[in-house]
């Protein structure tokens, strides 16, 4: 089973449920009456997006974007390519970007600048996980679930080679999983 590849659980299903309920309540109060556009960043943000909007309990709209960093090397150029754009015009809208994790910050820096360029009225960020040690550019989330140590984590949207996104918790893989992949 998928579970058997996990060395340890960092944030349990219960930890995440409690945190998404707390964040959802705060965000529901913050965005009451403005019909925010909640933007999930594919694919990692899907489970968190689904939980956070159901905790907000206010009228809102949902849309999705898919982006990827240019280049294949380990050192990213910092440039971001749009693979799927929004269907919605953001001009004059209050935007809440939903992410599973902020690492270098390059994805979010690009998106915040893009939405401001497109004349969004406001742009805020909620992320389940913030890996502050990974930061290469200056960007801060407005709402953070957990500050995560500089470890490779999977589950609840986060993948290793596209797998493990459907685990209901966030955990660390057993080292032999990577070792097998390198053979
Ligand atoms: C991951 C993660 C964030 C981004 C964070 O997505 O879901 O979107 O990287 O990294 P950064 O702060 O260094 O930009 P990825 O591009 O792997 O796509 P995925 O969500 O489809 O896994
Ligand atoms: Mn992502
Ligand atoms: Mg990924």
UniProtKB/TrEMBL annotation:
Pfam families: Pribosyltran. GO terms for cellular component: cytosol. GO terms for biological process: GMP salvage; guanine salvage; hypoxanthine metabolic process; IMP salvage; purine ribonucleoside salvage. It is an enzyme of class 2 (transferase). Its cofactor is Mg(2+). Purine salvage pathway enzyme that catalyzes the transfer of the ribosyl-5-phosphate group from 5-phospho-alpha-D-ribose 1-diphosphate (PRPP) to the N9 position of the 6-oxopurines hypoxanthine and guanine to form the corresponding ribonucleotides IMP (inosine 5'-monophosphate) and GMP (guanosine 5'-monophosphate), with the release of PPi. GO terms for molecular function: guanine phosphoribosyltransferase activity; hypoxanthine phosphoribosyltransferase activity; magnesium ion binding; nucleotide binding. This is Hypoxanthine phosphoribosyltransferase. It comes from Vagococcus entomophilus. Residues 10-160 form the Phosphoribosyltransferase domain.
